[in-house]
Design goal:
The strands form two sheets. Strands 6-5-4-3-2-1-13-14-15 form a nine-stranded mixed β-sheet. Strands 7-8-9-10-11-12 form a six-stranded mixed β-sheet, covered by helices on one side. Residues 311-317 have low confidence and may be disordered. The two termini are 35 Å apart. The chain is of the alpha/beta class. The protein has a single domain (6-312), classed as Metallo-beta-lactamase, Chain A (4-Layer Sandwich), CATH 3.60.15. The longest helix has 14 residues, at 99-112. It has ten helices and 15 strands.
């Protein structure tokens, strides 16, 4: 099968919050509505590396201000010019976070684009939307939604959960979910169990009952990514989560001191490397190579690739 050039980046923001991007097969997706002085140049650089001047989509997992900030969203929209915006499917609570203002800004952005080359598609990821998706997408490598199945009182548990699986390695985005029942449901999902390579820790790595030993053993990610700022006032990820990851042999990478970049290498059919940069630079702090779970499907020489790199896939204890 053809190689698919794939990149994932977790951005160092210089403050609390999350910002990521996923690029596969020519499509650039920005994850979360954040853009700070520390991350702006890095986003521009990433788009240049990927060879795009606009985003295929902007995916927002939560209306909380650390995921979508009304003071940063307008500049982000102008920079990446997304053709599609995926919004959380719950109504933002008044005076809690920035959601209502961000919704208005998204509507204004769409209105401004009416007389241009494209009009953005705005999609709200509701339980009804997920229920109406074509189940046949599980047979191909299409992106998949796993939450919300129900709208509940706790806004965190209405966060969008999505598996980005169009590239040569997959990324699981968990937003701010924290309910142990959601954790139990997700760990029973066959595709998540067999295809998750990188996992963005739920709720920035909080120890709230979602990320458990059972969850990690079933999902079995190779790398866990945590968005945390240098001062790390919320102590993310919690030491309890760090211990679980270490016990399960899962490599932890954080944005505390710089961006985290995962990129497919060689023939782009399963081999990828994960790099931790030094803040505000292109200097490398660490780099390690892995092989994706679906390499045996994407790479015609999958057996040789696995034999060479599989022993290094797990983080040494």
């Amino acid at each position: 099968m053809k190689g698919i050039r794939t990149r994932f980046r977790a951005y160092h923001l210089g403050t609390s919050g999350s910002s990521f991007s996923y690029f596969a097969d020519g499509r650039f997706t920005m994850i979360e509505g954040r853009l700070t002085d520390d991350s702006r140049r890095q986003v521009e650089s990433e788009m240049e590396i990927c060879g795009v001047d606009e985003a295929a989509s902007l995916h927002i997992t939560s209306w909380d201000s650390d995921h979508c900030n009304k003071y940063e969203l307008p500049e982000l929209l102008n920079l990446i010019r997304p053709r599609r915006i995926e919004c959380p499917g719950y109504n933002p609570i008044k005076d809690y976070g920035h959601g209502e203002d961000c919704l208005a800004m998204i509507a204004e952005y769409r209105s401004r684009r009416r007389n241009t080359s494209f009009v953005p598609v705005i999609t709200h990821i509701t339980p009804a939307y997920i229920d109406g998706l074509d189940r046949a997408t599980t047979l191909g490598f299409s992106n998949m939604f796993y939450n919300p199945y129900h709208i509940v009182e706790n806004a965190n548990d209405n966060s969008t959960v999505k598996l980005f699986r169009e590239g040569s390695f997959n990324v699981l985005s968990l937003g701010d979910v924290e309910d142990s029942l959601i954790s139990a449901r997700l760990r029973r999902c066959r595709i998540l169990r067999s295809e998750t390579d990188l996992m963005i820790l739920a709720h920035h790595g909080a120890d709230n009952g979602f990320t458990t030993k059972n969850f990690l053993r079933h999902i079995d990610p190779t790398v866990a990514v945590c968005s945390s700022n240098y001062d790390n006032q919320y102590d993310h990820p919690r030491q309890e989560i760090r211990d679980l990851l270490h016990d399960e042999g899962i490599r932890l990478m954080t944005t505390k001191t710089g961006d985290v970049i995962a990129r497919s290498v060689e023939n782009h059919t399963g081999l990828y490397e994960v790099v931790n940069l030094i803040a505000k630079s292109t200097d490398v702090s660490s780099v390690v190579r892995f092989v994706s779970k679906k390499a045996h499907i994407l790479d015609v020489n999958g057996d040789a690739l696995r034999q060479r790199y599989a022993p290094r896939r797990r983080y040494p204890r």
